[in-house]
Amino acid sequence: MKIALVHELLTMRGGAENVLRILADMFPNAPIYTLLYDEEKFGDWFPRERIRTSRLHRWTKLSTNHHLFLKSFPSAVETWDFSEFDLVISSSSAFAHGIITNGKPKHLCYVHSPARYLWDRTHDVIEQSQRGLLGNLRVAYLERTFHTLRIWDSEAAERPDLLLAASKEVQRRIELYWRRKSEMLYPPIGDEWFKKRAPFAGQMEHPTYFLVVSSLVRYKRIDLAIRACNQLGAWLKIVGEGPDRRRLENMAGPTIDFLGYCDREKLRELYWNARATIFPGDEDFGLVPLESLACGTPVIAYKGGGALETMIEGETATFFDEPRAESLAEAIERQNHSNFDPDVCRARAKQFSRARFEEGIHTAVENIKKQDTENDRMCIIRGTFCE
């Protein structure tokens, strides 16, 4: 089969981009369609020769703020022509599910989540936009834009031939917002996270520290981890980049370190030596906690969303119940008095292997091919001509 891959934005590394990386490995001849592409950040993952960008990409020379293009994203994904392919596999968090294939080629959509800022997080986004001198204008613009995009989003959700949900929580949202059934397939963690721990020589600067690995955006709730560690005087290392970094740095005390982007070798070392990895957000799934478990390190997680599907209280994780720094600080103190077995953590992570994910994708592709064959058979039975 001639296959194409689609992913909304290649501008910031995260869990969805890790999934695309595995899909790109599985289908090495498939071009990758994306609205915007940052070669500096993704050239080593997705070489430029595989990338096909949208007409909006040329405007990134004027501004790298992709929110300015929000209203234009739907029409941009609809202009791509996939008639040369047999199958399109999209990786969607907002717009990729809305490509137009008209049934030929077939469209398999892996859904990380229906766009949360359009549905369950709309009020949070609007509230944050009220701040500042032009707050009222921003709110008026976003309210109109989100209304238009919600209509498009729900209509475009009818286009894929098969939907794969990244978790049971995402599956619930797909049915709630899109009124569609989906099959569930958890994202994988890479085999490299299970590498044997390298011997560490020398004295660490901070022998007992907690770790956050995340893109630095408001909805990730990194501020909860900072406030909790400020309160306890605990060392916290934060790996990641994003637009919220300046605000977070301003609230950070002397025990908070911002490390920016770290390659996988460095990140594995940080996971290996951390007391625990803090996962403060209400996420759709969350690969970071599983990467931590694969390195034998337990997790402190908010008791909601995808973490409830992957973490086990008392065996691999300590949960905190409320999205408040005080609740997280109490969980950190409980974790400090608990003993977690690294082998138990690693065994749990292995249940979300790359091999299992690849098997699920291949099964979904075969199911779509069977649908096509069945449709052709029914056309012949009815005596009609079918392209």
Give the % helix.
25-40%
SS strand fraction = 15-25%
Total beta strand runs: 13
- From the N-terminal CA to the C-terminal CA, the straight-line distance is 17 Å
Radius of gyration: 22 Å
Description:
The protein is of the alpha/beta class and 387 residues long. It has two domains: 3-114 and 157-188, Rossmann fold, CATH 3.40.50; 191-351, Glycogen Phosphorylase B (Rossmann fold), CATH 3.40.50.2000. It contains 14 helices and 13 strands. It has helices spanning 15-26, 39-42, 73-78, 122-129, 135-156, 168-178, 222-232, 245-251, 264-273, 287-294, 307-310, 325-336, 342-349, 354-381; strands at 3-10, 32-37, 51-53, 87-92, 106-111, 162-165, 183-184, 209-213, 235-239, 256-260, 276-279, 299-302, 317-320. The strands form two sheets. Strands 3-2-1-4-5-6-7 form a seven-stranded parallel β-sheet. Helix 4 (122-129) packs antiparallel against helix 5 and helix 10 crosses helix 13 (342-349).
Question: Could you list some keywords that capture this structure?
Answer:
Rossmann fold; 387 residues; alpha/beta; 6-stranded parallel sheet; 2 domains; single chain; 7-stranded parallel sheet; 14 helices
Compact description:
By secondary structure, the protein is of the alpha/beta class. It contains 14 helices and 13 strands. β8 (209-213), α7 (222-232) and β9 (235-239) form a beta-alpha-beta unit.
